[in-house]
UniProtKB/TrEMBL annotation:
Pfam family, one: Aldo_ket_red
Identification of the protein by name: NADP-dependent oxidoreductase domain-containing protein
Site keyed Lowers pKa of active site Tyr: positions: K89
Keyword Protein transport on entry: no
Source domain of life: Eukaryota
Sequence positions that bind substrate: H119
tRNA processing listed as a keyword: no
MF-aspect GO terms: oxidoreductase activity, acting on NAD(P)H as acceptor; oxidoreductase activity, acting on the CH-OH group of donors, NAD or NADP as acceptor
Species per Swiss-Prot/TrEMBL record: Aureobasidium uvarum
Active site: Y64 (proton donor)
Keywords attached to this entry: NADP, Oxidoreductase
InterPro entries recorded: AKR, AKR3C2/3, Aldo/ket_reductase_CS, NAD(P)_OxRdtase_dom_sf, NADP_OxRdtase_dom
Start and end residues of each NADP-dependent oxidoreductase domain: 25-279
Family of this protein: Belongs to the aldo/keto reductase family.
Length: 299
């Protein structure tokens, strides 16, 4: 298998911690719809394979019900805890964040996570109220101060949600994890992140080469794939990294996980990133949370 242990660079966060610039997700492809206590050995094995290939940044969430699998994979990988970067997220149990994180830690068999995220701003009563967001963020600050997580952040937040928490925050969010690819460029949100020193993580980074194909990016992706001798998906991963955005991908296939690491072996020119931006802006595609974001909403 090619690319074993291809080094993945780090991005420095606003709290001084560092995050590896490619993550392996245990959500899509793996989340359970049934009983969480029924261990999915295929998920454990794929996660161990990913760790073995050098994916030390691992993304989970309470809602995926795969924290037990992630924990088992970490334990059995034999990789030192300090070398791994483990994320989990809260949403169903957001009313009691310390209890939710302690439950996640038990399932993960860990004493701390590296990053704890509010999975989405859609909770509270009324949903997305500034007061509900501020109250949840205060609890996030407390679990960081208690040492249960090294960094805290959010996911699927828009500028108005970030504004609400920043207004009363003692600790600013380190990261916002959003759906990001050339068909969902979030230019205003990215500018906001830059101004506030918030790092961006991209889920769904392969979307232009998978779910949203065919489309206006196909020819540009094909040309760049030929030039760099990689797949269109690897161009999509590099498109994120070259904008300092941390992609989180996944696969159950070892070969694909290995191939994705080729994204560490080349760099797109600013002009090529611009070509992808231009072609991508001719189509809008959102693969997740469509029921919460307006249909034609490019935020
Ligand atoms: N915070 C949030 O709300 C969300 C977070 N996530 C996180 O991000 C992770 C990755 O999300 P994805 O959307 O899965 O990322 P992705 O865009 O990288 O897609 C990965 C999927 O594409 C498939 N794939 C790869 N190459 C392919 C090809 N050539 N043809 C067809 N399919 C191909 C893989 O098998 C895998 O199922 C999740 O596991 C989860 O951890 C995902 C969605 C929402
Ligand atoms: O994080 C990805 C999107 C998502 C939100 N809720 C669930 C539940 C199960 C799998 C994925 C997700």
């Amino acid at each position: 298998m090619a690319n074993i242990h291809t080094p993945i660079p780090n991005l420095k966060l606003n709290d001084g911690n560092s995050i590896p610039m490619l993550g392996y997700g245990t959500g899509t492809a793996w989340y359970k719809t049934g009983d969480e206590s029924q261990l999915d050995q295929a998920c454990v094995d794929a996660t161990k394979t990913a760790i073995g290939l050098g994916y030390y940044h691992l993304d989970g969430a309470e809602v995926y019900k795969t924290e037990p699998e992630l924990g088992k994979a970490i334990k059995e990988s034999g990789v030192e805890r300090s070398k791994l970067f483990v994320t989990t997220k809260v949403l169903p149990n957001i009313a009691d964040i310390p209890a939710a994180l302690n439950t996640s830690l038990k399932k993960l068999q860990l004493e701390y996570v590296d990053l704890y995220l509010i999975h989405a701003p859609f909770f509270g009563s009324p949903e997305e109220s500034p007061e509900a967001l501020q109250k949840a963020w205060k609890a996030m600050e407390e679990v960081k101060e208690a040492g249960l997580t090294r960094s805290i952040g959010v996911s699927n937040f828009l500028p108005q949600h970030l504004d609400a928490i920043i207004k009363t925050a003692r600790i600013p969010p380190a990261i916002n994890q959003i759906e990001f690819h050339a068909y969902l460029q979030h230019r205003e949100l990215l500018q906001y992140h830059k101004e506030k020193g918030i790092a961006t993580e991209a889920y769904g980074p392969l979307t232009p080469a998978t779910k949203a194909s065919p489309g206006p990016l196909d020819n540009v992706l094909a040309g760049l794939s030929k030039k760099y001798a990689v797949s269109p998906g690897e161009i999509c991963l590099r498109y994120c990294i070259d904008q300092d955005i941390v992609p989180i991908t996944t696969s159950s296939k070892e070969q694909r996980l290995s191939d994705y690491l080729r994204a560490m072996t080349f760099k797109l020119t600013p002009r090529e990133v611009n070509d992808l931006n231009e072609a991508g802006s001719q189509k809008h595609f959102r693969g997740f949370w469509n029921h919460k974001f307006a249909d034609n909403d490019r935020r």
